Amino acid sequence: MPTRRGRLQTFWCGHSTVCYMDYRQVEPGREYVARLEHGRDWRGQIEDFAADEDIDAAFFVGLGAVQDARLMYYDQDDQVYEPIEFDEHFEVIPAVGNVSWLDGERFAHTHVALGRADGSTVSGHLDAATTFAGELWVREFDTHLERHHDETTDLDLWEL
User: Fold this and answer.
1) pTM of the shown model
2) Residue-wise burial string across 86-106, b where 16 or more C-beta atoms lie within 10 A, e elsewhere
3) What is the pLDDT along the chain (160 residues), one digit of tens a residue?
4) Which residues have C-beta within 8 Å of that of residue 146, sequence separation ≥ 6?
């Protein structure tokens, strides 16, 4: 499917009043519901599932609980990820993300909000977490998405 560029009129482009957003129309593929396995890594299970089902691109939403978590915060000024470790139990409220390719492997880009017993939350980019219980909805896209280095942000973003 050809890449198209959309034109957005916006004031926060930084260099111009006209900015461009890359986008591609995708067709929906298969849909799945899954239960994550107790004691295994949350994100790793999504990546393994995508490999087992030959999924090259997808969106997912998950709910459940984890026994610990390592989140990553991206410092936009220094352009580095800062790890934040938690050794406590959390409710996953929710985890959302997408599956695409990064460095020759499937990558589950996952953001998560985690609830504590007192009702407070922590959130960020999920690097790892030990699953206590989890349920997942996955919607595949009938396309191949791959991440490549973006010079502006120093992040690995979809190349559309």
Assistant:
1) 0.88
2) beebbbbebbebbbbbeeeeb
3) 455 555 444 445 555 555 667 788 899 999 999 999 999 999 999 999 999 999 999 999 999 999 999 999 999 999 999 999 999 999 999 999 999 999 999 999 999 999 999 999 999 999 999 999 999 999 999 999 999 999 999 999 998 8
4) 100, 101, 102, 158, 159
CA distance 143 to 110: 19
Domain covering 27-144 in this structure, CATH number? 3.30.1330.80
In angstroms, the CA 99 to CA 145 distance is 8
Query: How do beta strands 131-141 and 58-66 pair?
Result: antiparallel
Count CB-CB contacts under 10 A for residue 73. 13
Residue 15 is encoded by which pair of tokens?
């260099």
